[in-house]
Amino acid sequence: MLLEMKNISKFFGPVKALSGVDFSVQRASIHGLLGENGAGKSTLMNILSGTIPLSEGDIYFQDEKIDEMTTNKSKKLGIRFIHQELNLINDLKVYENLFLSEEIKNKFGFLDKKAMIEKSREIIKKLKMTINPEEIVEYLDMPQKQMIEIAKALLFDSKLIIMDEPTTALTNKEIDSLFDIMRFLKEEGVSIIYISHKMPELFSICDDYTVLRDGRFIQTGKFSDINEKMATELLVGRKLVEDELEAGEIPDIPLLKVNNFSGKTFKNISFDVKKGEIIAITGLYGDGRAEFAEALFGAYPLDEGEMYLNDKKVNMSSIKNVIASGISLVPRNRKEKGIIKDLSIQDNLSIAFFKNMHKKLFINKNEETERYNKNKELINIKADNPSDLITSLSGGNQQKVIISRWLELDSDVYILDNPTQGIDVGAKFEIYKIMHNLAAAGKSVVVFSSEFPEIWKTSHRCIVMYKGNINTILDRENLTEENIMYYATGSNLEVKND
Question: What does the UniProt keyword field contain (predicted)?
């Protein structure tokens, strides 16, 4: 056994984040760590990496008891943590990020720039990337930044690598490359702890699993002995009844009309969304969707285009004007564009309401608390104290707070840009239900997503983009994964050009 964590408990004041958890990893294996947001996965891994101390329990690594795990000791043991939230410094070069705090020095004690660049080049080649080690990180796209984080773990003599949602920003091709690397590392004797909410990935790459729920150990075993349905039920502790989308007739009443939207990465985009309709927008990475989502909210400059809500032209000159017209956006990147790190959970939830809806001179704290409790129950936010900083919550619960923030405004149109990214299956179910309820109430929902199961469970129609343009709009009857890929890759256009 490479790693054994026995009877691990962690207290944050009166809050018990972990309670008597057992966790072990075999040598040369890939171990899936499963659990909903807030289940204790991050806390357990932070204890293992030495970021936070344990309160009770013992850690054994390579049959040696570790009396006090620290970040330096963890690194010396060969344990590396690839975090979900990227920790790169944009102003530094690629090789400088790779060797940050672990720089190579020559015999005179000076930095050996040449050696670091050469080693960086070797690991980049190993990962099948075409990145210049001397490139400034700021100019890399998100998948490249994610692969740089992975490269940092591979540079050194790692015996155990922790990967927390490593495929979030990767394309299917890049995921396949990552899995090839993981299999190679396994053959070389390296073990990997793989944390993901994507069941197909877990079943594809992992040997063993451990399930945590509410800070407690639930079950461990081999993936070959369970299926996705069984794994899901272990995660949530209950059977999930599929909340089927009502795919019946929708009144032919356009609520939102988008005419000829054009910007730097998208061109001539026109469509409408009916009252009570959920429309998905999908495609491949780099197709202009991210910028287009922001453009709908007035946060990305347009070269031309108009938008109408209830036949009234929307003033696109500012985000404030768009919000006032009745449009809300749940952004893609919650860390950079969603949460306000210095504010509490309650303040993060209430800020849109007070900025845009509150007309009184003073804030009624009782009223604010009442609204917070209502939203907390509605979307099942797992939080102990509303006055705690938003950063004290897991990523999934932060996302729930952001969604609740915009639900407060009772908008006519909700734009959701990858709303379930990095969120567990139970929370996804809750968010899908909210989307269905919004549609049932006559609201329009525009959801940007790259996951077909999500598109199928939520949307009446699906816009498929290709190179910044709308390639097709699929109705419910023709909404299949094969059709989406056909149009997302531009196969229909290539056939015509031939």
Answer: ATP-binding, Cell membrane, Membrane, Nucleotide-binding, Repeat, Translocase, Transport
Cβ-in-10-Å burial (0-12, 13-18, 19+) of 82 comes to buried
Spatial distance between the Cα atoms of 313 and 322, rounded to a whole number of angstroms: 10
* pLDDT digits 0-9 by tens, 475-484: 999 999 899 9
Q: Predicted confidence band at 498 (pLDDT cuts at 50, 70, 90)?
A: very low
Pull the structure tokens for residue 370.
Answer: 């009442």
For residue 129, tell me if it sits in a domain: yes
> How would you write 173-240 as a 3-class SS string?
HHHHHHHHHHHHHHHCCCEEEEECCCHHHHHHHCCEEEEEECCEEEEEEEHHHCCHHHHHHHHHCCCC
Structural domain of residue 336, as residue ranges? Answer: 254-497
What letter represents residue 422's amino acid? G
Cite the beta strand spans of 358-439 per DSSP E. 413-417
| Domain presence at residue 108 | yes
Q: List all residues 6 or more positions away from 119 whose beta carbon is below 8 Å from its beta carbon.
A: 98, 99, 104, 155
Q: Which residues 6+ apart lie within 8 Å of 369 measured at CB?
A: 346, 386
Torsional sign, CA 217, 218, 221, 222: negative
Task: Tell me the per-residue pLDDT of 334-369, one tens digit each, with 9 for 90 and over.
Answer: 666 667 777 888 888 877 665 544 455 556 667 777
Report helix, strand or coil for 329.
strand
Q: Is residue 13 one of the residues assigned to a domain?
A: yes
The sign of the CA dihedral 225, 229, 230, 236 is: positive
- In a domain? residue 162: yes
- The reply to whether 212 and 350 lie within a common domain is no
CA–CA separation, 38 vs 132, rounded Å? 38
pLDDT in tens, 379-437: 677 777 888 888 887 777 888 888 888 888 889 999 999 888 777 777 788 888 889 98
